[in-house]
Write a structure and sequence with these properties.
Radius of gyration of chain A: 18 Å
Number of helices of chain A: 7
Oligomer: heterodimer
Number of domains of chain A: 1
Low-confidence stretches of chain B: none
Shape of chain B: elongated
Largest sheet of chain A: none
Helix content of chain B: over 70%
Largest sheet of chain B: none
Number of strands of chain B: 0
Low-confidence stretches of chain A: none
Order of helices and strands of chain B: HHHHHHHH
Largest interface: A-B, 30 and 36 residues
Shape of chain A: elongated
Order of helices and strands of chain A: HHHHHHH
Mean pLDDT of chain A: 92
Number of domains of chain B: 1
Amino acid sequence: MGLSVAEALTALETLPISAYIGESWWFPFLESIHVVTAAFLVGSIAMVDLRLLGLAALGQPVGRLTKEVLPWTWGACTLSLLTGFGLFATRATHYAGNIAFQLKMALLVLAAVNMAVFHLSTSRRIAQWDTEGTPPLASRAAGASSLLFWIGVILAGRWIGHLL
Amino acid sequence: MVLDLANALAESPLRTAVVYLLGNVPGLPPIVQTIHILSVAAIMGSVVLIDLKVLGLALPSQSLSELARRLMPWTWWALPTLALSGAVFILARPASYVVNPVFRLKFAMLAPAVVLAAVFHRAMAGDSGFWERTRAREIAAKVVAAVSLLLWIGVAMAGRWIAYADYLFPEGP
């Protein structure tokens, strides 16, 4: 007997820890960590995106820049997801029905797919263009899409609270 | 004195205009807040990342001087953008911001963070290897970077806590 989505959301928000977060200093604490890590995530990934677009850090090979920046991006991403889940748990049903939240999740999926496609296909031939100022079109497209998706994630995320 | 300034702002036509725009342009408040957060992202990706570099935690293969030349303009452009996007909300409710203890804490951390960044990078403007010349300077650079890192994270976190000041200080300032 499977659990329906609505039941799972209700189960999540009625957990004692969800109520505890929602009623204590933990909510603003997690929220402030969420904002700081999200800003770090976007600030660091934007550096890679702008390099892919041929607009910044042209003296740096793409592969090396990516290798050195992305561990920090992933660390920030992990913290952002964990803190975001903590915030979501406090009013799971409500957030799931919030159009800005739905849009944010959709944009996150697009950003992830974009990244996966880039790593699995476009960046495979990176040796051919690693040190070039202007990477091939597919790479520039990946960089531009990433920037747009992440700006959208921040905008939609900030909009959630305005629809409460 | 700060309260006088806040009251003067509260009575100015500029405030009337800002309040009108925030209330009547659909989506303006989250859009301005997004510009503010994206500028924080620029701070994180420039001065904060350089702090991590100086501490030996990030970007090992890039030279400090090259990184600073490349990234610091992002910090110097982000600051006025942050000031303008933040000023929109301060203008809308000046009195409630200036008496907010978290708002005050934020600016008490912001001022030394900006001064540290200016001093640190001013020293490198004349001599790009300034912080790597002697062991003592290397240690000084690491101390400055650690303090700077904590201040910027503190500023960004305090920014989010401004809205919760009533929760932190239920009896009021």
